[in-house]
Amino acid sequence: MTILIEDLTFEAILGILPHERTTPQRVRVDCRIDYTYAQGRFINYAEVADQIVETMRNLQFELIETALETLGSILHERFSLIETLELTIRKPDILPHCTVGISRRFTFGN
Predict the structure, then answer these.
(1) pLDDT of residue 109
(2) Residue 110: its pLDDT value, please?
(3) Which residues pair with 2 in a beta bridge?
(4) Residues in contact with 23: Cβ distance below 8 Å, sequence separation at least 6, in sequence order
(5) Is residue 87 classed as helix, strand or coil in its secondary structure?
């Protein structure tokens, strides 16, 4: 089974520039989760989305790379059924004519 969370958009402190440390900016996260669905064994996508926002807002990362790695670990820890996880974090407003971001695919041995 695959869960897709696309264009999850919220504001958070993310970055190393002085204005990024004091003013929340728009952040966009895409998440793709693969897991084995069985009767009574599922992942609640609303809880995943809430966990992403909560983690990003509470931890106020300096580096987008650290945010991605930490988010991957926290999601796997909280939702142990995850077999593979693809995360993309974007900062759509940091440069004037483009969106910048990073992505990674995590594979977990369940």
Answers:
(1) 78
(2) 59
(3) 34
(4) 13
(5) strand
Listed as ranges, residues in the chain with pLDDT below 70 are 110
Render 12-48 in DSSP notation, one character per residue: E---SSHHHHHS-EEEEEEEEEE---BTTB---HHHH
* Coil vs helix vs strand at 2: strand
CA triple 82-28-109, angle to 5 deg: 15
Please provide the size of the chain in residues: 110
- Do residues 85 and 72 make contact, with C-beta atoms less than 8 angstroms apart? yes
Is the pTM here over 0.90, yes or no? yes
DSSP 8-class letter at 96 = T
